[in-house]
Design a protein that fits this description.
- It is a single chain.
- It is built from 13 helices and 5 strands.
- It is α/β, with parallel strands linked by helices.
- It has 3 domains: 45 residues, no CATH class; 133 residues, D-Maltodextrin-Binding Protein, domain 2 (3-Layer(aba) Sandwich), CATH 3.40.190.10; 77 residues, no CATH class.
- A 5-stranded mixed sheet has the order 3-2-4-1-5, sandwiched between helices.
Length: 285
């Protein structure tokens, strides 16, 4: 669902999509900061998203094209650098923050429908850099550009430097005072959303352990097995839910223990226990 750099999809997840775990959203890294600064069009609360995880822990990076002649962030403070970004994405926020707090002279060009169009404009020479993209994405989609040094990383947006970018500064390291550092650290932390497993991680581990036996697969609902989780409007509608998975996992363990006990008993013993359960069920009617 394209639109406004992921904001449209996030709004749909929060307001329209069923809150039963059947709808997923590959959330953009700027969603938290967009909500915090009151960006136009935001109608969701990221605190109510049930996080599954983060596809990568590498930082986002702002890059220049090798033909631009710009190789450091300090040079952008002295001369203008035209960079592109799809409207509403993290790059718009990063560049705006750097211009306002660090004194850089980025000229931002938006209106691109996606990152591929920005890369094409970069290759054609229409712009001199890209405002933001994951470092892992650059290495996987354009390894030749990285190898041939056609893109030059000016700054990393994250809380920790990438091992292969040790000489490139982090965004918050460039702050001129404590207040600016706090703002830039907040923006940098947004790129790590979903990294901390918390109760969602523990629930997934318990579910994964239970799914190792066929008995669990028959007891746990299909949509719970898929681990599809999304926006939660209240604690009882979360999926998967800690207490609910606890009960399912405990039931699975009881079933496995019962089957283990059955193996040590005779056929007559098992038949008698089955008859007893049937009598109890009939009396309960």
């Amino acid at each position: 669902m394209p639109g406004v750099g992921g904001v449209k999809a996030a709004n749909y997840l929060a307001s329209i999509a069923p809150h039963d775990g059947t709808t997923l959203h590959m959330i953009m890294s700027n969603m938290m900061s967009s909500e915090a600064i009151g960006a136009q069009g935001v109608q969701f609360d990221t605190r109510k998203f049930f996080w599954i995880g983060n596809t990568t822990s590498t930082p986002n990076v702002t890059v220049s094209w090798y033909k631009s002649g710009v190789t450091t962030i300090d040079q952008v403070k002295a001369r203008e650098l035209i960079v592109g970004a799809p409207g509403g994405t993290a790059g718009v926020i990063y560049v705006t923050a750097m211009n306002g707090l660090l004194g850089t002279k980025f000229k931002l060009v938006t209106g691109y429908p996606g990152g591929n169009e920005v890369n094409l404009a970069l290759e054609r020479g229409e712009i001199d850099g890209r405002a933001s993209n994951s470092w892992a994405a650059w290495k996987s989609t354009h390894p030749d550009w990285v190898k041939d040094r056609k893109i030059v990383v000016l700054v990393q947006i994250g809380l920790k430097r990438a091992p292969d970018l040790k000489d490139v500064p982090l965004l918050f390291e460039l702050a001129n005072n404590d207040m600016d550092r706090q703002v830039l650290t907040f923006l940098s932390a947004s790129a790590r959303a979903g990294d901390v497993p918390g109760h969602a991680g523990r629930a997934r581990h318990r579910a994964a352990a239970g799914l190792r036996c066929n008995h669990a697969r028959s007891r746990i609902p299909r949509r719970s097995r898929q681990g599809a989780v999304g926006y939660r409007s209240d604690e009882r509608r979360r999926l998967p839910e800690d207490r609910r998975l606890d009960r399912q996992y405990a039931a699975c363990c009881r079933g496995r223990r019962q089957r283990t006990e059955d193996r040590g008993q005779t056929t007559e013993d098992r038949r008698q226990r089955t008859d007893d359960r049937g009598q109890i069920w009939k009396r309960s009617l």
